[in-house]
Amino acid sequence: MEKVRKIPFFNKLIVYLFITVGAAAAAYALECVLVPNSILDGGVNGISIILNILFGWRLSILIPLINIPFLYIGYKNLGGKFLFKALYSIIIFSLLLEGFHHLDTLTDNILLATIYGSLLLGLGVGVIIRAGGCLDGTESLGIVVSKNTNISVGQFVLICNAIIFSVAGYFFGVDRALYSLLAYFITSKIVDEISEGFEKAKAAMIITDDGEKIANHIYETIGRTVTAIKGNGLISGEKTVLYCVITRIEINELKRVVMEEDQSAFITITDVSEIIGNHIKSNKGLKKKKRKKDTDENIQEIG
Questions:
Q1: Which of these, 133, 160, 237, 294, could form a disulfide with 300 (CB 3.0-4.6 Å)?
Q2: How many degrees, rounded to 5, is the angle at CA 142 between CA 140 and CA 148?
Q3: Whole-prediction pTM value?
Q4: Which domains does the chain have, with CATH numbers?
Q5: Comparing C-alpha atoms, which of 61, 191, 214, 203 is closest to residue 139?
């Protein structure tokens, strides 16, 4: 029994180690490369950098404060485990920002700062997201908006950042806004490569013996509807195949939900290049009896 318990603990330790390393890379990129050259990041970090440059307020205080409402939204929609990892990510990130605050600037060359600062920032943020953490709460709000509108998470984040860079152009000049936009583009591409897609939706296919339980758990925990198809394995016999479309940030939560119900489940996750039609989202007013009835059909929508 002791060995069985040690393995999950070791895995969790590795996850938080990755988050710490990612936070260190991102914090150094901001404090020692981007911010000294008035180059902005997007989202909450971008808002914090603007306030830091204009009023001299510390990034290590601004970032956690501005993230509070977004973290609450994330907790309501993604659960306590997301909140804990996000809190750890932001707290350790803020502490490292404070620690790097007194270090010398890496370079005063604006082009070098833009390229290498954004590369380092993208690496750090990508590692954090891959480990299930989060530094920017605007994605949490984007998930809520996506569930209730036809605007994707990526589109919502893009709109927010367009506003932030416009403000940067007004206060710091068009050249700094353009450099910031370039930095954001490079950062996003690096995050894409590390965390498997920034704007793309993900399609999850789950083959299991406990289709009804898993489908209901996914709906109640993540708020995503599921299509269930009856299938037969060549060796394993009758199975239920579940199909649902999720966002990148929901992948870790989906894996956790499935493994809680069926550790022998088989999961595949693929990119979705385009979604045509109205994607059914969670409906909190729907009764559980209705969902249970729908799950018994060969092909049906839960929710």
A1: 294
A2: 115
A3: 0.62
A4: 2-195 (no CATH), 201-302 (3.30.70.120)
A5: 191
Summarize pLDDT for 93-109 with one digit per residue, the tens: 999 998 998 888 889 99
Q: Is residue 183 a contact partner of residue 40, using CB atoms and an 8 Å limit?
A: yes
Tell me the pLDDT band of 274, cut-offs 50, 70 and 90.
low
| 273/170 Cα distance (integer angstroms) | 35
Task: Give the model's confidence band at 291: pLDDT under 50 very low, under 70 low, under 90 confident, else very high.
Answer: very low
Q: What distance in Å separates the CA atoms of residue 272 and residue 244, rounded to the nearest whole number?
A: 11
Q: Taking 60 as the threshold, does the pLDDT of residue 300 lie above it?
A: no
- Residue identified by tokens 């109640």 is 220
Cβ contact 126:194 at 8 Å: yes
